[in-house]
Fold this protein.
Amino acid sequence: MSINADKPHLWKDDVAASVDLFNAWFLKFAPQTFRETRAKTTELVKNALASLDNVRSITPDVLRKQPGVLPTLRMSTAPPIARDRLVGLAAVSSNLVSSLEAGRLPMRMPAAQLDQQLKLICKTLQRLLDRDLFPWLERAAKPTETELYRAATIIADRLTGAVADPLIRNAQEQEQLALIGKYLKARGYVQEAPPSGQDLAKMKPGTFSFRLNVPVAEGERRVNIPIDVVIQPKKPHPSRLPILVEAKSAGDFTNTNKRRKEEAQKIHQLRSMYGKEVRFVLFLRGYFDTGYLGYEAAEGLDWIWEHRIDDMLQLGI
């Protein structure tokens, strides 16, 4: 029996309620997270600028000793450039740039090639440097404390979005899982993983688990896919298969429609492995429009809205 997938007359109102719920949460949580992240990032940028002699020394030697300064340098250009743009402009290895961004040098790149590519990166960054950020370069003098702080905060602002967004997404996911856990515990469920780790049929009645890797078939081989919540009802399904829940949170409509095939692929993999009896539902908060819902319904997926969590009772919980 469907929960929401077969009720398109409710979708429009549910979308509006879900958007309101997300916006209220974002306005409460995101500003503080952004401020805290910006403060930490500003200190990191100030340290990076110091290691670069306040951008007067953008050299391969500096990148070898302090590879983690590359994000600061990318945000010091006009315009600021993304990793892939730097790879294309400098004509260097994407693996090199990824390694530098992670704060290390690539392990297998020959020394001569590394030196050449670091020179190309430095040349590109120097050419694009946003000199309005660093007025002391024109007068060949030391920067004032005010100039340094201003430059560091501007660069930090450019970096903060990239740093804060994953923190906000992670907080959303953690809050959704905590909400489901609280809901289940209030109904007498116990958090406990399946005895053998991945044998879903052996999961004890009245238990649930978070972040479980579930084996599925992919061609002729088996792979594990992560499932956010696995719930074995107190009265299990005749197949003994538990309920599988994917928590989804989104802050805009565009990304959800871009990624809607991911959930459809998961349910096809699960059904291929465990049969049509598998119960896989989405737990939604935020910007999921009727186009997204229609696509998922057509693929055989159902969902529960966070703002109406009691719909979980229809799963036999």
User: Anything to note?
Assistant: The mean pLDDT is 91. The longest helix spans residues 8-51. The radius of gyration is 25 Å. Residues 49 and 55 are 6 Å apart (CA to CA).
